[in-house]
Design brief:
The structure holds 2 protein chains of 2 kinds. Chain A folds into 3 domains: 2-207, Aldehyde Oxidoreductase, domain 4, CATH 3.30.365; 213-297 and 357-432, Aldehyde oxidase/xanthine dehydrogenase, molybdopterin binding domain (Aldehyde Oxidoreductase, domain 4, 2-Layer Sandwich), CATH 3.30.365.10; 304-350 and 444-735, 2-Layer Sandwich (Aldehyde Oxidoreductase, domain 4), CATH 3.30.365. Chain A is 27% helix and 24% strand. Chain A is built from 18 helices and 30 strands. In chain A, strands 11-12-9-19-16-17-18 form a 7-stranded mixed β-sheet, with helices on both faces. In chain A, helix 14 (525-542) runs parallel beside helix 18 and helix 15 (547-555) runs antiparallel to helix 16. Chain A is globular. The longest helix of chain B is centred in the last third of the chain and has 18 residues, at 136-153. Helices cover 40% and strands 16% of the residues of chain B. Chain B has 2 domains: 2-72, Roll (Ubiquitin-like (UB roll)); 79-153, [2Fe-2S]-binding domain (DNA polymerase, domain 1), CATH 1.10.150.120. Chain B has 5 helices and 5 strands; from the N terminus they run ββαβββαααα. In chain B, strands 2-1-5-3-4 form a 5-stranded mixed β-sheet, sandwiched between helices. The termini of chain B are far apart. The radius of gyration of chain B is 15 Å and the shape is globular. Chain B has helices at residues 22-30, 79-90, 100-113, 119-126, 136-153, and strands spanning 2-7, 10-15, 48-51, 54-57, 69-72. The chains are: A alpha+beta, B alpha+beta. Chains A and B meet through helix 5, helix 7 and helix 17 of A and helix 1, helix 2, helix 3, helix 4 and helix 5 of B. Chain B: Residues 1-77 form the 2Fe-2S ferredoxin-type domain. Chain B: InterPro entries: 2Fe-2S-bd, 2Fe-2S-bd_dom_sf, 2Fe-2S_ferredoxin-like_sf, 2Fe-2S_ferredoxin-type, Beta-grasp_dom_sf, Diverse_Oxidoreductases. Chain B: GO terms for molecular function: 2 iron, 2 sulfur cluster binding; metal ion binding; oxidoreductase activity. Chain B: This is Probable oxidoreductase.
């Protein structure tokens, strides 16, 4: 439910530093309920301010969500502009600071459009109503005799027109419309929504003028690098800073104590040794010259290969029963004509956004100001208030462009570091992580083991399904000693398995965390998508059936399953994307020698995705030749942007399948940089073909993440199709296949 | 030592340790922040610039090696860079945009040396640049488009 309020314009102007006159619309929207991230949630209804119209017709639209490549600044602005009947050339977008006035700004979970589209449309529509009323007053006619088009109000009787900018003074005197009087446009009248608008930031992106976190420059700003213990949560035992201090440009070196967050919220920071310098490179050099003896502490003996074996043995024994099972799997297995078993692994993964974690902070006694590439500026602000005991109203979090986020920049540890250092040196400071810092001190995507056992009846249909999963929980980063995956995590593909299974049993096994666990683009769906799609392919093969037909049979007749957050699951839409993809890929066609096709489907963030991958495998080396993806994400707000996201998700998914692996030896991450934690590069990039289902009358659902979980299983299924060899443990590079 | 850098046609005489990588001299001393830090070890291409017309990773070249030389960064301009910018915009290429400075500079170097590159020639040069958002297919298409745009003008 939304409520519209009149906002004090001075407050707004002060907030944005805008000086020109105009009308301002404020609106409060309910914070969207977090559907899978626990704790740290803003609650209730908060005022929001999004539109500023100037006398010259220029309109500033406020982007409340962080821009990290998902195109949100353009997409939500276009929804406002559409309802406002604005001419796009007058629109500029400004980034909001972190403030509860804007509602929940936490940019993750593929939900910005899902939760903000309607409130943003109402913003635009109510502003338009005020302009119509203002014009009507000028012409002395009824508002219903006015319409708006392309930045003008039209007098329907006389055909006279008035420019939006010329209505500023009058519109300022019009009272805000009641919320239930706001009428939104019909789908067929959309001008921008559902079409393609190019990014509003193209000029900056192509001229090097977009300011990311690392590009902030303040007068007298220092640069800082931090040496952190290679083992998570380890501490400094002894150090020698002599050689660090000798580096030209280094100004000081000191120990930074760890900040431990309270149970249930915030991220804190590792602490370590920090080097302050007058340029980034000197700080890096100083850090490299530090001699530090660490106390690794409790995690110092952790070894990820050993842990893989431990998890594997656990999923091969009975685990904790997860509620929601069906039928009796034991008797189904007894009556089975055929039993299929398989165990799957996904390693730890790091986010590695191109822009490393960094933040610029200025601690000034009673005030803190930070400039940082953060996905969740409000949590950063609350966290700073907690650790530095300064009220939130004295803390300003400026959100810069994010050079990639993928979940890494949801965590504000690097912001806390910058403030702690600024407080210590009493000067503005920019903390910059090296790439090695980023690879070795992430909040990692958890490793997982899954055991699946399925039975086939005499008709080759699945009669029983047992799945045991184990992966360290995200909750462990908030509540220490959380040793089982939580309900919200299992509900990402495991408990909400959409297949028609009469006998279904899910078990959860112990998986303790010995490094920081976080969420990465598509989160637990990476595990569920890989396990379930790989296993269905194995079952289809055992049943001697076509994998696509096998999926379709398992999806069953058209039916609707009640879902969370008002998004029911429709099997028909799932089958539709699968059929669309099969037809795009010409499934069943004769393939060149050594080529294979593989399919995977996955439902995540309320969107339906099907992908088919074509690989060639020559001399045991895999090349991904083609990827076809169809998505039903309901109303696709900005078509080309959706396409770009899915193309990107294919590449991101390929990095997981081909290369992604963080290994830990004696508690420390073994990888360093892009030479040993590799990414998909252009030479690996296949032809990517995207289909967006026309579902303009459905509410919008996730786009940024749903394209990821299907890629790894579709690649592995394609490898099987080409070679008869099953890949059950990622990545392919571990098997010498790339 | 005093180092003279001719960046985008403007002379900068700076005082810097001779072993400081060119990247940090450009970013932290001169203050041009369009050239990006991505890895520090010539692995990602985010810091790409042209040095006397040669494509280099500025994170790995000591600033003394650039003394007296001409440098093109993303803040600058060249005939091919302008066509590429246009093609990048036409194709709505960037997502987060962070790597695109390096991508555009690398593509400029490619077109400076190869008038009409094939897909393989594009792969050979552009595979040195990582885009974590995964805009590779758009980048490749945009490079071809830039060639088309250039031919149209002539």
């Amino acid at each position: 439910m939304s409520k519209i309020h009149r906002i004090d314009r001075r407050d707004f102007v002060k907030l944005l530093g805008l000086a020109t006159g105009g009308i301002v619309l404020g609106c409060s929207i309910g914070s969207d309920k977090k559907d899978f991230i626990p704790t740290i949630d803003a609650e209730g209804f908060h005022p929001n301010l999004f539109i500023h119209l100037e006398k010259n017709g220029n309109i500033t639209i406020i982007a409340s969500r962080s821009e990290m490549g998902q195109g949100i600044r353009t997409s939500l602005a276009s929804a406002i502009a559409d309802e406002l009947e604005a001419d796009w050339k007058y629109i500029t977008v400004e980034q909001a600071i972190g403030h509860e006035k804007y509602g929940n700004q936490n940019t993750d979970g593929s939900r910005s459009v899902r939760t903000q589209l309607t409130p943003m449309r109402k913003m635009g529509a109510s502003a338009k109503m005020m302009l119509l009323a203002a014009a009507a007053k000028k012409w002395n006619i009824a508002p219903k005799d006015c319409s708006a088009k392309n930045h003008f109000v039209i007098n329907k009787i006389t055909k006279e027109t008035l420019f939006f900018g010329d209505l500023v003074a009058e519109a300022s005197l019009i009272s805000l419309p009641e919320e239930d009087s706001i009428q939104l446009k019909k789908v067929e009248d959309f001008k921008f929504i559902g079409k393609t608008l190019k990014s509003v930031d193209l000029k900056d992106f192509t001229h090097g003028t977009a300011a990311y976190g690392m590009d902030i420059r303040l007068p007298n700003m220092k640069f800082a690098a931090i040496a952190r213990c290679p083992v998570a949560f380890g501490t400094v035992k002894k150090f020698n800073k002599k050689y660090a201090e000798e580096v030209q440009g280094v100004e000081s070196v000191f120990e930074l104590p760890r900040l431990i967050p309270p149970t249930g919220k915030f991220f804190g920071m590792f602490g370590g040794m920090t080097v302050i310098a007058n340029n980034t490179w000197a700080a890096f050099q100083g850090k490299a010259n530090l001699k530090i003896e660490w106390d690794g502490g409790a995690n110092a003996s952790f070894d990820s290969e050993t842990f893989k074996k431990t998890l594997t043995s656990r999923v091969h024994k009975t685990g904790k029963l997860v509620p929601g099972g069906k039928g009796n799997v034991r008797s189904a297995f007894k009556a089975a004509v055929k039993i299929v078993e398989a165990t799957y692994h996904v390693p730890f993964l790091a986010h590695t956004p191109m822009e490393v974690p960094n933040a610029t902070a200025w601690f000034q006694g009673n005030n803190i100001e930070v400039w940082a590439p953060v996905q969740d500026p409000q949590t950063a602000r609350s966290e700073l208030s907690h650790f530095f005991e300064i009220p939130e109203e004295n803390i300003t979090v400026n959100v810069t462009f994010l050079g990639g986020g993928f979940g890494r920049k949801s965590k504000s540890d690097f912001v806390v570091e910058a403030v702690a250092i600024s407080k210590q040196i009493n000067a503005p400071v920019q903390v910059v992580w090296t790439r090695e810092d980023d690879v070795q001190h992430d909040f990692y995507h958890a490793t997982s083991a899954q055991y699946l056992k399925g039975s086939l009846d005499r008709n080759g249909n699945v009669s029983g399904w047992l799945q045991r999963v184990g992966f360290p929980s995200i909750v462990s980063s908030f509540t220490p000693f959380s040793e089982y995956a939580s309900g919200f995590e299992l509900n990402q593909g495991f408990t909400n398995n959409p297949y028609i299974l009469k006998n279904f049993r899910l078990e959860n096994v112990q998986a303790e965390a010995n490094i920081r666990i976080g969420w990465m683009r598509s989160v637990v769906h990476i595990h569920s998508g890989f396990g379930i799609n790989s296993f269905i392919d194995e079952l289809a093969f055992a049943a001697k059936k076509d994998p696509i037909q096998f999926h379709l049979n398992l999806l069953g007749p058209d039916r609707t399953i009640a879902g969370s957050a008002g998004f029911p699951f429709h099997s028909k839409r799932f089958k539709n994307v699968l059929n669309k993809t099969a037809s795009m890929a010409n499934w069943g066609k004769k393939l060149p020698k050594n080529h294979g096709l593989g399919v995977a489907i996955h439902y995540s963030f309320y969107s339906y995705v099907a992908t088919i991958v074509e690989v060639s495998v020559i001399d045991k080396k895999v090349k991904v030749e083609n990827i076809w993806t169809s998505i039903d994400c309901g109303l696709a707000l900005n078509k080309d942007n959706v396409k770009n996201q899915l193309e990107g998700a294919a590449i991101f998914g390929m990095s997981i399948a081909l290369y992604g692996k963080i290994s830990i030896e004696e508690g420390a991450v073994a990888q360093n940089n892009f030479y040993d934690y590799q990414m998909t590069r252009m030479k690996d990039a296949p032809n990517i073909h995207i289909n967006i289902v026309d579902a303009m009358n459905e509410p919008p659902t996730g786009v940024g993440e749903p394209g990821v979980p299907v890629i790894a299983p579709a690649i592995c299924n394609a490898i099987f199709n080409a070679t008869g060899e099953r890949v059950r443990s990622l990545p392919l590079s571990d098997l010498g296949m790339v | 030592m005093i180092i003279n850098l001719l960046i985008n046609g403007k002379l900068h005489a700076i005082e810097a340790p001779e072993e400081m990588p060119l990247l940090w001299a450009i970013r932290d001393i001169i203050g041009l922040t369009g050239t990006k830090f991505g890895c520090g070890v010539s692995q990602c291409g985010a810091c790409s610039v042209l040095l006397d017309g040669q494509l280099i990773k500025s994170c790995s070249l000591p600033v003394s090696g650039a003394d007296g030389k001409e440098i093109l960064t993303i803040e600058g301009s060249s005939e091919n860079l302008e066509f590429l910018r246009q093609a990048w915009s036409d194709g709505n290429v960037p997502q987060c945009g962070y790597c695109q400075s390096g991508q555009l500079i690398a593509a400029t170097s490619l077109l400076d040396t190869t008038e009409n590159p094939t897909d393989n020639e594009i792969d050979a040069v552009m595979s040195a640049n990582i885009c974590r958002c995964g805009t590779y297919t758009r980048i490749k298409k945009a490079i071809h488009k830039a060639v088309t745009l250039k031919n149209e003008v002539i």
